[in-house]
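subagent[fold] <- orchestrator: predict structure for attached chain, return tokens only, no commentary.
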Amino acid sequence: MADRPVAGPASADDEPGGRGRLVIEDRAVQRIAEAAATRVVGVVPAAQSVGALSSALGRAYPRVDCDVAAGRVRADVEIVALWPTPAAHLGEQVRDAVTDQLHRLAGLQVDAVDVTIADLVRVAAPARRRVR
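subagent[fold] -> orchestrator:
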């Protein structure tokens, strides 16, 4: 059997700081926050929040604006809520979800997440079927 080389001492290239750096674009941070907000129960998904034309123009909800600098982020999130979801509770859940996902997926320190409920939408009752 041939001798296998033995791993030597770790070099600077093996250390996490010596391998390069990770750059996360602001648009990626925005998408992470949008996805996190959409997953919260009581937040209306983009396709249901506005008409097709507004969605095509990029005016669908949730709307997210993020300021990212030096590994820190502040986010403003606008959502559409399902009626009768309690607004304070929904805002807290969205804030927690966005904070968690930005920290876990992007490694950012989240300084603030401001949540605005831009509109309320009633859930349409399912059509009743007639018995014949």
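orchestrator: received. Logging for downstream: The chain has a mean pLDDT of 80. Helices lie at 26-38, 46-49, 52-56, 87-106.
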